[in-house]
Structures are given as structure tokens and as C-alpha cells.
Design a protein that fits this description.
With 174 residues, this protein is α/β, with parallel strands linked by helices. The protein is built from 8 helices and 6 strands. A hairpin with a 2-residue loop joins β5 and β6.
Length: 174
């Protein structure tokens, strides 16, 4: 079973002036997939605090996937991708590209999300937008790939077919 943590990055949620809606929305979506949510945490839009939470969760050895929500846009305090880069050891650019490409099907502002994905040890860390809708849609864009990534990180290196139905039906022969 995949063990996930959800981290909401938001000054206003931490201060108690706004309700966290994206963290619980992601938690509910993760649970609907049959995964376990081991932690639901908050962090302010401060690089050191974001990095500390990500390091603690990833280095615990208990979490396979950390999903952050918030701080991926272009506002001055949106620094989640930069903080994440300070923690991950290897980036996976294709996940961010896929989330933005799929997001364009729903909103033209999807390209403004600067979220990244990467690995720290055996933990996958993915940045998602701060709106509940954007967070869940972005997560859904990559959700079918996550079990394969977790398997690979755990040493199960068999290559399962995780292609989507469009790609699996295409003929690539000449």
C-alpha cells in the first residue's frame, strides 16, 4: 500500500485566517485510490520551513509520496518549487510537464503552475497547485504513474504497462 503525506503550503492557512480546502481534497482523492494518508501537515510560505517538513517526512522512511499543495504560482511568496529543489536529489521534469499539459484541458492558467516533482531517497515529492480543483486535477494527471514510481524506488524494477489507452492502441510500425 502506498503511504502518502499531504502538505498544504499557505501563510493564511497556517495563520488560521483561511480554511485549508486543498489539503483535505487531496487527502480524500488519495484515500479513494486505496492509498494511506499518514500525515496531513501545514507549512507557511517560507523556504526553510517547507524544506524542513519535506526533509522530515521523506527521511522518516515511512512515506512513499509527499504531495504539496500551494505556493506553485507566480505570486511573490510562491516558493514551493524552489524549496522543493533544495530537498530533492533528482528531479522528474516529465511529471510537472504532464500536469501542466493535462491542466490546459481545464484552464488556460495551468501553465502558470511552476510545480515540480522529484525524489529524495525512496520518496517521491510532487508540488500541486493550491486550489482544491487544481490540486486534484493535477494529481489525477499523474496518479496512475505513482505506483510504478514507488515500485521502482522500492527495488521492484519490473516494467509494468502504465500507458494510457490512447497510447496503448497506437500503431508505431511502418
Amino acid at each position: 500500500m502506498i503511504k502518502a503525506a499531504v502538505v498544504t503550503v499557505s501563510d493564511s492557512v497556517v495563520a488560521g485566517t483561511r480554511e485549508d480546502r486543498s489539503g483535505p481534497a487531496l487527502r480524500d482523492r488519495v484515500l479513494a485510490l486505496g492509498w494511506m494518508v499518514s500525515a496531513l501537515e501545514l507549512a507557511p510560505d517560507e523556504s526553510e520551513k517547507i524544506e524542513a517538513v519535506l526533509r522530515r517526512l521523506a527521511d522518516s522512511g515511512e512515506i512513499g509520496v509527499i504531495l504539496t499543495t500551494g505556493g506553485t504560482g507566480v505570486a511573490l511568496r510562491d516558493i514551493t518549487p524552489e524549496a522543493t529543489r533544495g530537498v530533492v536529489e533528482r528531479e522528474i521534469p516529465g511529471l510537472g510537464e504532464l500536469m501542466r499539459a493535462e491542466g490546459l484541458k481545464f484552464t488556460s492558467t495551468a501553465v502558470l503552475s511552476r510545480g515540480i516533482a522529484g525524489l529524495r531517497g525512496r520518496t517521491l515529492i510532487v508540488n500541486l497547485p493550491g486550489s482544491p480543483k487544481g490540486a486534484v486535477e493535477s494529481f489525477d494527471a499523474i496518479a496512475k504513474l505513482v505506483p510504478h514510481i514507488v515500485d521502482l524506488l522500492e527495488g521492484r524494477t519490473g516494467h509494468a504497462d502504465v500507458s494510457n489507452s490512447d497510447a496503448s492502441n497506437s500503431d508505431v510500425s511502418n
